Structure formats: structure tokens, C-alpha cells
């Protein structure tokens, strides 16, 4: 039998994951939304016992970030969660709270989310591939 120490059990039950979230700024002018939108890609770090739990927690985080306001022209602006672009299991080589984001323009990201976002199965499969197992570039990374 291979018994685990309490420290090993704790470490295993609180695996860190990084989730890349996609958001859009949707501006309404005269009741019509523009097609080309500024988008934000944000990576958040979550600690969960499994990839499935990490994906659910990341989605809740994205939904919680949604809000609306009026811009300087008085037009409604909606900051909306489009979905999860990527989910990675983080190993000991990563810092404790790494977060990164990027801003870019996209055409109708919410309407095209089925084309843009990977499926849940793809996200969960990618999260189960540890960075230390050797990525597609053979360096142990994920090829980025």
C-alpha cells in the first residue's frame, strides 16, 4: 500500500489552474450594437480539486465580472463574459497568483462564441495535460 501524508493529500486536492476568459465591450447606439467590439482576454488563477471544478469556478468568475454603464456620449456599454478560451493545470514552476490580460478588437464575439471557444471536453482534456509532461514543442511547456 502506498499511504499519502496529510501534506501530499492537501497539495493534491488544491491543484492550481489558469483559465483564459474572453469578455467583450458591447456598445449600443440608437438601440443597435456595433459588430466590431473591443475584447479583453484575462487569465485568472483558481485552486480546485479537478479540472471540471476549475472550469466551473472560472465561468462563475467571468459571469460575476459582467456589468453595464453609460459612456461619455450617453450610450449603454455592456461588459459581457463570452466564455473560457483555455484552461491549464499549473505546476510548481508558476508563480502564486499569475494574471495576464490582453485587449483587441473582434467582430461579433458573442454571436460567434461557438466558433471562437473550445468545447468543454477540449478544455478539460487540455487542463489534464500537465506542463511537466512535455508539451507539443518538447520543452515541457504548452507550445506558446
What does this structure look like?
With 144 residues, this protein is an alpha+beta fold. The chain is elongated. Strands 1, 2, 3, 4, 5 and 6 form a six-stranded antiparallel beta sheet that branches. It is built from four helices and six strands. Residues 7-11 and 130-144 have low confidence and may be disordered.
In terms of topology, how is this protein built?
Layout: H1 6-13, E1 15-29, E2 32-33, E3 36-48, H2 51-64, E4 67-70, E5 76-90, E6 100-107, H3 113-116, H4 120-128
Antiparallel strand pairs: 1-2, 1-3, 1-5, 3-6, 4-5
Keywords:
six-stranded antiparallel sheet; disordered C terminus; 6 strands; alpha+beta; 144 residues
| Distance separating the two termini | 40 Å
Helix-and-strand structural type? alpha+beta
User: From N to C, what is the helix and strand string?
Assistant: HEEEHEEEHH
Q: Helical proportion?
A: 10-25%
Provide the β-strand percentage band.
35-45%
* Poorly predicted spans: 7-11, 130-144
Q: Let me know the average pLDDT.
A: 81
Profile the largest sheet: 6 strands, antiparallel
Which value, in Å, is the CA radius of gyration?
18 Å
**Total strand count, please?**
6
Amino acid at each position: 500500500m502506498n499511504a499519502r501524508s496529510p501534506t501530499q493529500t492537501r497539495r493534491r486536492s488544491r491543484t492550481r489552474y489558469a483559465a483564459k476568459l474572453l469578455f467583450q465591450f458591447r456598445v449600443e447606439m440608437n438601440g443597435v450594437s456595433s459588430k466590431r467590439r473591443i475584447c479583453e482576454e484575462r487569465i485568472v488563477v483558481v485552486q480546485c480539486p479537478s479540472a471540471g471544478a476549475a472550469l466551473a469556478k472560472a465561468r462563475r468568475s467571468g459571469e460575476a465580472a459582467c456589468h453595464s454603464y453609460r459612456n461619455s456620449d450617453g450610450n449603454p456599454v455592456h461588459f459581457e463574459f463570452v466564455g473560457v478560451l483555455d484552461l491549464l493545470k499549473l505546476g510548481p514552476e508558476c508563480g502564486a497568483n499569475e494574471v495576464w490580460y490582453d485587449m483587441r478588437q473582434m467582430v461579433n464575439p458573442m454571436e460567434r462564441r461557438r466558433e471562437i471557444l473550445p468545447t468543454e471536453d477540449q478544455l478539460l482534456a487540455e487542463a489534464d495535460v500537465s506542463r511537466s509532461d512535455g508539451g507539443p514543442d518538447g520543452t515541457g511547456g504548452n507550445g506558446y
